[in-house]
């Protein structure tokens, strides 16, 4: 018969027919026999000594069944519907208990299914349900050395949590209509005292843990307080006085107890034990305004209210107003509230949970003080915020009953002193591993394999060296994938590792499959159990895992899928030889647990050990030093010294203070000042000019390029009090010249970023009839200074302040107006001069915030990528 070439459409029809026939044939093939475990569900926890196992055999005739085994024990005869049931003993010491059901056909083929039970004894070991709190799972201890290491940081919070000015002003009046001069059976005079301004040079803190509390001493150096004193008697006397007090040192001492905060147990509540004590050294007091500063009457008042009485009044007022307002009630004393704010950084939950991508709740269970430090314990719940694709949804995690360790003054292994101990119980570690497995940890698709010659592509030819069926039935270049999928979480036990490692880690039911890329089913599938050693080290800001290679006897392999019918004994031998070398690489997949900064301080590792089974990091606390940082910042006051003339006809004053605070990346300066003048007579103007000037110097420490964001601003008021009497109307002037600002890198570039205030001046003309004027002024500017490497930077600010009280001798004869430039400091002129007072020296003047006024300078350093 002659051969005829088929047309292209005919060939397509033929190929389609063949494909359809093959698909139909495949669909007509009977389903393959298999064995199924119905109960228990894999991953279940049990504290019982045994567990019931039920299952069934499907897709096979009873006559084709040679045997059905559960963990190697026959369960024949089968029940109705080819079902089976049995009881399997559980071994709590083994932890991971595999239950393997095996079907053996009369043709010699084997089918398997597996369920994994995590066993505990219900006493020493058990489980914690997903989302439940594990008791006393986390611990934190700050020793006396740690308190010493924290003290410099708390001192730097003087402008924040320990803002003494804000604490005192919040308690106004610090003396509330209390008797200050007693008679035989009555009170001559009562006084009310309000704090108006506070300044100090520096603040230091000393804390010492004691049973039941932390003894704390806050020492304020060069303490200045401006007070308003209102005095009255019981009849008709009533007057106000301005009072300034100075003290070389002011020490506030007290005892404070720490406890979990009611209603918010993840936070620390600080309670004051009893009243504080106040000791004042180098006390001085001066009446600066009002009747107390007036001639004759002021002398009488000062005789009645002398220096010793004022010191006692101030001390008593501070002690009264720094006490806890409601004892055991919810309100805090001012210093307790300040300490509480400073300790807000003691949070075990937030920083760790956010960094490793888990939800971590860690309410404090207890906080206690003893002679050596402060101990915190917290319950913990660690869960995954979302289930990763392909990850198991685990019902619980393994729990170990462990007594809380009694941390001493030194580490338990090396006997080294430390500042802080952070303990993570075995239960909490297992919660963490569970959450990370649910988040996708340990899922891997390996396309390279190292068999002793460096990484090689995983192909049928490579694996065929060990699995002959892959060599014979597939092209050697066929790429394959070794897929790893955890079915339960790795488990840390209370035991040490098999070779002296810190802990024992049980890796159970790790599914390992060999697949063609994109294939629906594997060529081979096994589940692996292993007992390995786990070491933990602290460095680089985190707790890192190191997994040792297990001994062959500590590895078990269950073959579940074997469609290529490879020799199972040979496969077992190959896997037992190669898998142990892969386990150390799993440490890279176990996510490092980052340990956050503590109150802004870095942890310097001392020891990682496991007292009572609780994995504990012992560390010292040190400032976090960024590679690009500010160092050696200083402020030099270049202004003229403060001065005052407070005579019968000549009144003028210049007063100012400067302060600098800085961190590793910022520097902030605040200059407060007042300039005032008043011509009390019709002859002789009163004027005063001062150049307010200061310099900031700092070192930039950097390896690369950097930029300084420089800014400065001013806020205040020109306050002119019109002293017109009938037709007598003189005048006055207040002005601020250009506010200059220059920045210079030593041997390098510079910047100029001054400004002019808006407005720059206010003038009351002679006979102008302007009335009272309280004109706010402001201004600001900024610049960027760029450099590279280490550098010394000088930044200087200057402005000329001018005040003139303009009198007039004739036509009309008039004394000058009161003139003041208010920039955050009260005047101290006593002769009824009020234009420079805060919050307001006259009803026509706006009340101003004394802390918001002044000249402010900011420096922010940032590294340039």
Key terms for this structure?
single chain, 865 residues, mainly beta, Immunoglobulin-like, Bactericidal permeability-increasing protein, domain 1, Bactericidal permeability-increasing protein, domain 2, 4 domains, 8-stranded antiparallel sheet, 7-stranded antiparallel sheet, 48 strands, 14% helix, elongated, disordered N terminus
Notes on the protein architecture:
The protein has 865 residues and is mainly beta. The chain folds into 4 domains: 34-121, Immunoglobulins (Immunoglobulin-like); 154-345, Bactericidal permeability-increasing protein, domain 1, CATH 3.15.10; 443-535 and 547-590, Bactericidal permeability-increasing protein, domain 2; 629-863, no CATH class. Helices cover 14% and strands 48% of the residues. It contains 11 helices and 48 strands. The strands form 9 sheets. Strands 23, 26, 27, 28, 29, 30, 31 and 32 form an 8-stranded antiparallel β-sheet that branches. Strands 10, 18, 19, 20, 22, 33 and 34 form a 7-stranded antiparallel β-sheet that branches. A hairpin with a 4-residue loop joins strand 11 and strand 12 (187-199). It is elongated and about 135 Å long. Residues 1-27 have low confidence and may be disordered.
